[in-house]
Amino acid sequence: MEYMYTKYPLHLKISTGKIHKAQNNQTQIHMESIYHIETDLECKVLHYGTELCIATPGHDVSITLRKGRHKLTFISTENAQDQYTIFYEVPENDFEDCIEVKLWEICRSRLIKEGKLVDLGLSVLWASCNLGATKPEEFGDYYAWGETEPKKVYDSDTYKWYDGDKSNKYCYSGVKKILDQEDDAATVKCGRNWRMPTHTEWKDLIEKCSWVSTTQNGVECYKVTGPNGNSVFFPAAGLRLGSDISEIGFLGAYWSSYLGTGWSSSGCTITAWGVNFSYSGVSMFKDLRQRGRSLRPVAV
Question: Beta partners for 31?
Answer without folding.
Answer: none
